[in-house]
Design goal:
With 372 residues, the protein is α/β, with parallel strands linked by helices. 42% of the residues lie in helices and 9% in strands. The longest helix is centred in the C-terminal third of the chain and has 24 residues.
Length: 372
């Protein structure tokens, strides 16, 4: 909440909420929050931390880490990752037809270096270890041995538990929840969302589930755009991504609530379950990992002749240049002296280029690219 002058009110200075589900512009054709803008929003609301959870990718992890630290904001690296729900869906055929695998998102947040490495492996596996016709995603069995160092949020109404609820799959709902508990002991949170005309019955079910199972609640706002007045532009972005028209009824839509709300707005929205908002701070304190820049690490290039990489690059360059001169430059009327003069001109330039490459220690890089 801000005063008419645009200054923060006293209430907003009491921070009991941080956003744990934000889609940056790296959620391609879906998110519309630039990293710089995200940091400005955090500073405006005195928000000490923020999680970026792009859809099925971690493209922005490095940029967010660097700019967040520079802005005095604690970055929380995360990902909204789709999981296949077929194993819990009693109405789903055991033989998956093309494009028929049902999937739903959960949110994974990095606690430490091990968690970052595990999340990196999981995201890669979601693209590589699947049938070509399947959507990007993982089964929960794929998480075996890769769940340490990660906090899991259940995905809210659109997550696997919400999907089971809307399909009236009570057994699948409980089986999925039990599996998540087993994979993320003491690191699982039941996620609540309240956008537009939110489903109060499902919300109550989640709250009861959390209390009965002694699993904590957490409140999120699935942020896709920075401000409420950005809704129409974001809606147009979704239409462009899906090849649809704004006037179409049956298409993906978000609500005007899917923006980066202030802590006061979120606290008021979840005033009946204040622990859900406060637990965002608990999670932020449990996550303490930011990426740092490192020098490039290139594999050693095996020359096979006992030469150094610099010598090998020179050897290949000389052979290649002589071949190109013979093939493309020398003409029949050129005498030996003319050829030597032409060759000296090219080789002098090659020596200059190789000297620059060796000074920068990029000999191995050029050899590897040459292999490609």
């Amino acid at each position: 909440m801000t005063t008419p002058s645009g200054k923060m009110s006293a209430l907003d200075k009491v921070i009991d909420f941080v956003h744990l589900r934000v889609h940056s512009a790296y959620s391609l054709a879906e998110g519309a929050i630039r990293t710089e803008e995200l940091m400005e929003l955090c500073q405006r609301y005195s928000m000490p931390a923020v999680a970026v959870t792009d859809t099925n990718n971690m493209f922005g992890a490095m940029e967010v880490s660097m700019k967040a630290v520079k802005s005095g904001v604690q970055p929380i690296i995360g990902c909204q990752l789709d999981i296949y729900t077929d194993d819990f869906d009693q109405g789903q055929s055991s033989q998956y037809s093309q494009h028929a695998r049902s999937h739903a998102p959960i949110v994974l947040l990095v606690q430490n270096e091990l968690g970052y490495k595990n999340l990196s492996k999981l995201v890669s596996r979601a693209y590589l270890d699947k049938d070509t016709h399947d959507p990007v995603g993982l089964s929960l069995e794929d998480f075996s041995g890769l769940s340490e160092g990660l906090i899991c949020l259940t995905g809210g109404p659109q997550g696997p538990l919400g999907q089971m609820y809307y399909k009236n799959q009570e057994d699948g709902f409980q089986a999925c929840f039990n599996k998540l508990q087993a994979l993320f002991p003491e690191r699982l949170y039941v996620e609540l969302m309240r956008h537009g005309d939110w489903d109060q019955d499902l919300d109550t079910l989640f709250i009861n589930l959390a209390h009965e199972s002694n699993v904590p609640l957490v409140a999120t706002n699935n942020c896709f755009f920075p401000r409420e007045d950005f809704y129409e532009a974001h809606d147009a972005l979704l239409c462009i991504a899906g090849g649809r028209y704004i006037t179409e009824v049956e298409r993906r839509r978000e609500t005007t609530d899917h923006y980066f709300k202030s802590p006061r707005e979120m606290i008021d929205l979840f005033s009946d379950v204040p622990e859900a908002a406060k637990n965002t701070l608990v999670i932020a304190k449990r996550c303490a990992y930011a990426l740092k820049t490192v020098d490039p690490v290139l594999p050693a290039y095996e020359t096979g002749e006992g030469r150094t990489e610099a010598q090998e690059l020179r050897h290949q360059s000389e052979e290649g240049l002589d071949w190109r001169l013979e093939t493309y430059v020398y003409k029949e009327e050129h005498g030996q002296e003319e050829k030597e003069a032409i060759r000296k001109q090219y080789f002098d330039r090659m020596d200059e280029e190789l000297e620059i490459i060796s000074t920068m220690q990029y000999d191995g890089y050029f050899l590897i690219v040459a292999d490609f």
